[in-house]
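Hi U.,

Before I forget, here's the chain from the pilot set. I'm dumping it here mostly so it's searchable later in email.
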Amino acid sequence: MSLDKLEIILSQQLASIDNAGTSKRHEQVISGRTSGTNGFGPRYHLADFGQKSFLRMNSNSYLGLESHPDVIAAEAKAAEQFGTGPGAVRFISGSYQAHKDLEQSLADFHGRQSAMVFSSAYAAMLAVLPQLVSEQTLIISDVLNHNCIINAVRLSRCAAKAVYDHLNMSELETILKENSGLYKRVCVVTDGVFSMRGDYADLEHITMLCKRYEGCYDEGIISIVDDSHGVGVLGKTGRGTEQLCDAKADILLATLGKAFGVNGGYIVCSSKVIKYLRETAALYIYSNPITPAEAAAATQAVTIIDSELGLVKLEKLQKLGRRLRTGLEQAGFSLLPGQHPIVAVLIGDTKQTIALVKRLFEHQILVTGLSYPVVPKGQEEIRLQVSSDHTEKDIDFLLSVMLSN
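Structure:
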């Protein structure tokens, strides 16, 4: 047996990826972190860049909880008590009290009957959606949904699938109306916040349409929302897109790896659905859970977000986001509208996007550039992400570099 022939094919495919400019394997490796000084926030060191320190504007840790001393202490204490790994999948001997405590905290936080923790939000979507779909189910999806939803739909043995234009509620209603009586069940699945843009689904309208047309399908309509970028960030108390829109999905998925600052994913919904998924969701049954230490850290993070300190962090995050948006708009940059800490700066040209990312890096600022063919021509952008760990001086420094020639 030999890999020689296969490696020739793979080399050609890698060359094609590199030529298209879509490579993701050349990763920047973070080798250190230092606390902020002189009014600036934390700085990060990269392997192969010596003592240079970088302002990180491409992190999903919106509330900075990965470095909060109480979260770190909770994880350290649980690791000392239970060790560094769960040792088994949950139905064998891998369920710890820390997992149960976290699930109860998440259910309470979202006002649901029950919760279920997975190794990641991606795994949660792949595990959950196929188990809620029969061969007589129609799946309806937003065209800009995350890759995890796209792949979960592919894994689902549904009767049919339909895709509506981004945030187009008229088109969603048309699909529901035209398919009335043709399928027994419908799953409407969407991101809460769309990660490349920072805009969000109109959950009030979506849930209203689901209720309006559920009588047209024998087994009803299920609304499923992945709000990984919304939970902890949007709404008066950080309950995410649901709170912002004053509407609840039937099933909510989210991550512990963004605003909560830890690792893992979860769903919240009714206790009966959770019981069924514990029996049927392969990525839960046959895959190790997050560690007990991670679960303890996440529980502490939930406690912080659901406290006065959490409100302070959320208010600071929103204030810094407004400061960045205002500065960029006054300078003439084109932004996608929104109130999320994802600030999408529309450049509209691949060369200009690459050049601006390079210039920011030369000034020791880490950002994410999205160029063609990752995005369509004319929609090239730079995605900036604000954190409550940032300061006004960080935002002003970023603006000064963005505005310089």
